[in-house]
Amino acid sequence: MEELDLSAMKRFFLEQGERRILEKQDYFVRQGERSGRVAYVEDGMFRFVRTDTKGGEHIVGYSFRDSFVAEYTSCLCSRPALADVQAIVRSTLYVLPYEKLRRYWEMSPEHQRLGRIVAEQLFVMTYRRLMDSYCCTPEERYMDLMRRYPELKEQRPLKEIASFIGVTPETVSAIRKKLLKSGIS
């Protein structure tokens, strides 16, 4: 897969986007509402939370500092958002309407290429999570998550990490104990 240089897109958000500060627990997008906004996260952290029909919350994703955040299905399909996108620390964003980002991608072949690569990477990330949920053990999923995002261990509660990898908090606790015994933290 092609390497991605997002500096031009970040610059576009910084120059054209509306700067917003969201406090901890503020929502960028609410499940069930239409969202046509995309943002560059200059500083902060977000979680994607899907609430099921019984009121149970499921952590389905994260966005971190120096990345982008959106409820992409809502933007792409003009449908209600499938999940909440919530700040989990005070966060600084540069927000654009999705339509403006789409026009940016249409401005030149290089911008179109960038949009294509972003879409490809989102697909690969989503497909990998799907495959991992079927083929990897809870311990493998936990270790992969901690390798990719080590800050989660200190910043997010055990219950939330468990939800993200699709297991109970007790399972994550047992995994941590096992790893600690074997000298892996």
From TrEMBL:
It holds the Pfam family cNMP_binding. CDD domains: CAP_ED. Gene3D superfamilies: Jelly Rolls. InterPro entries: cNMP-bd_dom (IPR000595), cNMP-bd_dom_sf (IPR018490), RmlC-like_jellyroll (IPR014710). Residues 1-103 form the Cyclic nucleotide-binding domain. This is Cyclic nucleotide-binding domain protein. It comes from Paraprevotella clara. The lineage of its organism: Bacteria, Pseudomonadati, Bacteroidota, Bacteroidia, Bacteroidales.
